[in-house]
Amino acid sequence: MNAAELQKEFKRKVCEEIYVELEGLARFVVYTPFMFDDGDHFVIILKRLANRWIFTDEGHTFMHMSYSEIDVSHGTRKSIIDQTLLNFNVVNESGEFCLEVPNEAFGDGLFSFVQALVKISDIAYLTRERVKSTFFEDFRLLLESRIPDERRVFDYTDPDNDPRRIYTVDCKVKGMKQPLFIFGVNNDAKCRDATITVLQFEKWGRDFRSLSIFEDLTQINSKVLARFTDVVGKQFSSLGAKDRIYKYLEETL
Amino acid sequence: MTRILTDEEIAELFQEPKQLTRNWETRLRPHPKSNFKFTQRDCEIEGKNGHMFRIIIRHNMINPLDFSIILIFRDEDGTEFNLCRYNGKHPSQHTNKLEKSKGLPDSSFRNAFHIHMATQRYQEEGLNIDGYAEVTNEYSSFDTALRTFVRTNGFSVSGDEPSLFDVQGDPK
Fold first, then answer.
1. Nearest residue to B83 (alpha-carbon basis) of B14, B4, B30
2. ipTM of the complex
3. B54 touches chain A (CB under 8 A)
């Protein structure tokens, strides 16, 4: 087979994997080879709305992901989904993914839409542990980007009062009158630990300010959060409030 | 690592009597989920042999033919295994990956009501336990699928109303 034949054969084989079928009024089912783990392929519909064409999944992607009870509404998974949608110009209309196709550029639109669906469905592989580590990784990166090396200590414990290193502060910022203790909080247990740590440092008579950054504050049990709110200084509801966190750190440093 | 359910175990789990309450249709009626385009319902049932099962129901609000009714077995350590999934006619394709990899004919089908089934062979190949599916003519809507699901997977209703499962076609 020469190069020209190979190109022709390649194109034929790839094209035959994509198939469009009219189903309904100005509504086409687009069959592609892209699928979920269980062998069900992505739902892709090309629809004409007034004077525009859109690709839509008719809400199927989130429905399929919900079989495995993957929480796509909060935390790292939500952030990844939001970013993916943004990258591929896909809009989330109350659980339905839509991509407008300008100038009948169906090919470009389809590739973008498929890429978005692939990335979103891959979120199923993010286990709880992975999600957790992503938050702390992001938390650390954010602090490293704004606080000079010599002024921060990660996983700080009090050497005099706590030789067994039981009460840990995720990040201590020094070099000012009152040090700043920063806690990353991703669940109820961590919120309780941070509450106890703040109270313990107060008990030892340490003078400090405190700041907490949540993975998602709305996911914390209200009573646990209330107790923490009583003892901690400043709080940010998630890493999404980056600009405000930067501003706060600049003012504090 | 998750253990593999043998075909014998799977068959026994299907056959294990599972009792639904008299108002099972109400209890399994899915409700809308805010910010999503589907309704959902989950329900837990203990089998006669002490095994725990769950029924998960999802129904698309845009396309009424797109739904999923899933029977799940929860092992003692909490691991969950999908035993079967009664799917609607989602507008896309299904591919039985194992059959396709072996070059077998008819490994894919398009836009058809289909039932996913747990198989030992898919697990042994590292594929999804319910990755194998077959086209079905047993139902043609969500309501008839739910009735077929209940009729064929070891369920009975407290108070014993066998006629409940004899209804054919849509109840509407």
1. B14
2. 0.90
3. no
- Of the candidates B30, B63, B34, B36, which has an alpha carbon nearest to the alpha carbon of residue A62? B36
Taking Cα atoms as reference points, which of A194, A203, A195, A200 lies closest to residue A171?
A: A194
Beta bridge partners of B155: B18
Per-position DSSP letters for A31-43, written without gaps between them:
E-S-B-TTSBBPP
Q: Do B130 and A73 touch (CB under 8 A)?
A: no
pLDDT digits (tens, 9 = 90+) for A133-180: 678 888 998 899 889 999 999 999 999 999 989 999 999 999 998 999
Best to test chain B binding among A40, A64, A69, A128 (most B CBs inside 10 Å): A40
Alpha helix (H) ranges present in A126-210?
Answer: 128-146, 188-203
| Helix A75-87 × helix A128-146 angle, to 10° | 70
Q: Which amino acid is at B163?
A: S
User: In this structure, which long-range contacts are made by residues B21-29, counting pairs with CB atoms below 8 Å and at least 24 apart in sequence?
Assistant: B21/B157, B21/B158, B22/B157, B22/B158, B22/B159, B22/B161, B24/B150, B24/B155, B24/B157, B25/B146, B28/B55, B28/B57, B28/B146
Hey, is the C-beta of A247 within 8 angstroms of any chain B C-beta? no
